[in-house]
Design a protein that fits this description.
By secondary structure, the chain is of the alpha/beta class. It folds into two domains: 279 residues, 3-Layer(aba) Sandwich (Rossmann fold); 201 residues, N-(1-d-carboxylethyl)-l-norvaline Dehydrogenase, domain 2 (Orthogonal Bundle). The chain contains 21 helices and eleven strands. The strands form three sheets. Strands 5-2-1-6-7 form a five-stranded parallel β-sheet, sandwiched between helices. It has a three-stranded mixed β-sheet with strand order 4-3-9, sandwiched between helices. A hairpin with a 2-residue loop joins strand 3 and strand 4. Helix 5 crosses helix 7, helix 10 packs across helix 16 and helix 12 crosses helix 21. Keywords: Oxidoreductase. This is Mannitol dehydrogenase family protein. InterPro entries: 6-PGluconate_DH-like_C_sf, 6PGD_dom2, Mannitol_DH, Mannitol_DH/Oxidoreductase, Mannitol_DH_C, Mannitol_DH_N, NAD(P)-bd_dom_sf.
Length: 496
């Protein structure tokens, strides 16, 4: 007989009545006080950084490091409303290949208002109790100039914040305004910690914050640069988006959570131990502190993040819905294995306990997890940030080493073909990049003139004039348009 008993909505008031199989906070939320502001409060942060903090709190530790959530875009208001309605609690659903488990975590105690000028966010970050400001604002959120690799000083929002430091539009402008208040009050700066998939994310964040501050207050910029801390970090956990299926799964497991978070049964966090005003002991919860994060982040970003781009665009074009499905598709799986082993792993260094080749095997196993419904559309989103960030650095290293590049250029050609806006079967691809309207006409013109795509200097820069790059890209894009994606994949897989 089907169980028709009501499923409790998630809140502090209902925690005690949750099913026994759902773990929940053993700490009293009234004992928590804020120490962290986190900007960009999506699924990944809640499944990753917030979970590590939750583990400490479960042992009665780090109770003065609770999180204040924050957003800087109007669409963040919907998430704020949903989370505050359930007392900022989150249900995490771990999806292993052969099992699943749910737990409720509660290290976030409030979500700041979304406001023009970010007054509440600035005041919160200026509070001496806040010792860390962390961010997950996506790779494309750091205003990186594709041609120079520095921050895009000419971006309209950067220009606005430089001219209006007291009423900023960006998260970074808000951080600078708060840091100015701390300096005026003789309070040390908070540690600014990026948790996004960028090589040298701490360095990139430092350059952006200091560079933006310099545009309006050079003395403040010097203080931030000298007194502040911007640790590099590597984060790793596959966290799909939440949709109707995940909402139904949470209810099936016994809790009505408006924003549950599915995630794989793997997490890794490597952090440079550079903090101004202390930090939680995340290492005792499973994180790794290292003096050199670079090898970890290079291996992960190249093997996993670039690996996602290897399979996602082919998957979208062939109508393959998820990454796990891609690893069950003979051609896409073979593409992944060959590109990873011959053109990506050679340009990643080993880390303690793991070689690049072993990490490729680990990532393949994780990608193939059928319980993780991570869509190719989600993974292919924002290729204009992800290809320059994940794929093209490998290509540059391969060219410098005179190594093979055919697979990497096939990946670029698949992306260009996807940006033409139709699948192999003619199905329209809905906009899937912040620059979609700009990319689509270029991708369509590239059907007859492939070099048009490479001439997007904001993406490829000097690569567009490299003879090997041009030759390989023209070959693959022409073959894809003429004979189709499967033929192109078969040609690459079967080549020496």
């Amino acid at each position: 007989m089907k169980d028709t008993s009501p499923v409790p909505g998630l809140s502090l008031a209902t925690l005690a009545g949750m099913p026994d199989h759902i773990d929940r906070p053993r700490y009293d939320r009234r004992d928590l006080s804020p120490g962290i502001v986190h900007i960009g409060l999506g699924n990944f942060h809640r499944a990753h950084q917030a979970w590590f903090l939750h583990r400490l709190m479960q042992r009665g530790e780090a109770l003065d490091w609770a999180i204040l959530g924050a957003g800087v875009r109007p669409y963040d208001a919907a998430m704020r409303e949903k989370l505050r309605a359930q007392d900022c609690l989150t249900t995490l659903i771990e999806l292993a290949p052969d099992s699943r488990a749910a737990e409720i975590i509660g290290p976030m105690i409030d979500y700041l208002p979304i406001e023009d000028g970010h007054g509440a966010l600035i005041r919160a970050m200026a509070d001496p109790a806040i010792r860390i400001v962390s961010l997950t604002v996506t790779e494309g959120g750091y205003f990186i100039d594709g041609a120079t690799g520095g921050f895009d000083v000419n971006h309209p929002e950067i220009q606005h914040d430089a001219a209006n430091p007291g009423a900023p539009k960006t998260a970074f402008g808000a951080m600078i305004a708060a840091l100015e208040m701390r300096r005026a009050a003789n309070v040390p700066p908070f540690t600014a910690m990026s948790c996004d998939n960028l090589q040298g994310n701490g360095r990139i964040l430092r350059n952006l914050v200091v560079g933006l501050a310099r545009l309006s207050d050079p003395e403040l910029a010097r203080w931030i640069d000298t007194e502040g801390a911007f640790p590099n970090s590597m984060v790793d956990c596959i966290v799909p988006a939440t949709g109707p299926g995940e909402l139904a799964l949470a209810r099936e497991m016994g809790v009505a959570d408006a924003v549950p978070v599915p995630h794989e049964n793997f997490r890794q966090w490597v952090i440079e131990d550079s903090f101004v005003m202390g930090r939680p002991d995340w290492n005792t919860a499973g994180a790794t502190f290292s003096e050199d994060v670079h090898p970890y982040e290079m291996m992960k970003i190249r093997v996993l993040n670039a690996g996602h781009q290897v399979v996602a665009n082919a998957g979208v074009l062939l109508g393959v819905e998820t990454i796990a499905d891609c690893l069950s598709h003979p051609l896409i799986k073979a593409l992944f294995r060959k590109v990873e082993r011959t053109e990506i792993a050679p340009y990643a260094a080993p880390v303690p306990g793991m070689t690049p080749e072993a990490y490729v095997d680990l990532v393949e196993h994780r990608f193939a997890n059928p319980a993780i419904r991570d869509t190719t559309r989600r993974v292919a989103f924002d290729g204009s940030s992800r290809h320059p960030g994940f794929v093209l650095p490998i290509l540059r290293d391969a060219l410098a080493a005179s190594g093979p590049i055919d697979g990497l250029m096939l990946v670029e050609a698949l992306w260009a073909r996807m940006c033409a806006g139709t699948c192999e079967d003619g199905t329209v691809i809905e906009p899937n990049d912040p620059a979609w309207d700009h990319l689509v006409p270029i991708a369509i013109r590239a059907k007859d003139s492939p070099q048009v795509w490479l001439q997007e200097t904001g993406l490829y820069g000097a690569l567009a004039t490299d003879a090997r790059v041009v030759r390989a890209f023209e070959h693959w894009l022409t073959l894809i348009w003429r004979d189709g994606v499967p033929v192109a994949l078969e040609s690459y897989i079967g080549s020496p």
